[in-house]
């Protein structure tokens, strides 16, 4: 069974995770901090960028995976996955690479939460049909 939307989504999120992890490592080495953030507010932001991705991505991946297993409507799953990925990039970039850019961060969270809410509806609609 082929799961192209889930595959592309996981690959894209994995690339983003590697970029954010490299950023955390870069700041840990520069600040000589092995655990925690060492009281460095910039390192704290970078860690949270990575952590927020890890906290949100698994739920969305699972929602897409379950829908793709049960429904042929891959175009909708692809659109929602693309929006989610763009949102995660916006949010991660804002926290890990910029000092402050609230519109980018806010937009990133909107493009994270709205597709997730839509995927919940899609999954429930598939089950309840």
TrEMBL record:
Record has Transmembrane as a keyword: yes
InterPro entries named in the record: MAPEG-like_dom_sf (IPR023352), Membr-assoc_MAPEG (IPR001129)
Listed transmembrane segments: 6-25, 46-67, 73-98, 110-128
Keywords, in A-Z order: Membrane, Transmembrane, Transmembrane helix
Transmembrane helix among keywords: yes
One protein family per Pfam: MAPEG
PANTHER family noted in UniProt: GLUTATHIONE S-TRANSFERASE-RELATED, PTHR35814
Record-given protein name: MAPEG superfamily protein
Record organism: Breoghania corrubedonensis
């Amino acid at each position: 069974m082929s799961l192209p939307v889930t595959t592309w989504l996981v690959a894209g999120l994995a690339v983003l995770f590697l970029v954010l992890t490299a950023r955390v490592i870069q700041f840990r080495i520069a600040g000589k901090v092995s655990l925690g953030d060492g009281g460095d507010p910039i390192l704290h932001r970078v860690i949270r960028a990575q952590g927020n991705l890890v906290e949100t991505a698994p739920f969305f991946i699972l929602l897409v995976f379950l829908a793709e297993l049960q429904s042929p409507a891959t175009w909708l799953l692809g659109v929602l996955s693309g929006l989610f990925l763009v949102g995660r990039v916006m949010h991660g970039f804002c926290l890990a690479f910029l000092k402050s850019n609230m519109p980018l961060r806010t937009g990133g969270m909107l493009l994270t939460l709205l597709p997730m809410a839509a995927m919940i509806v899609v999954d429930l609609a598939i089950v309840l049909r």
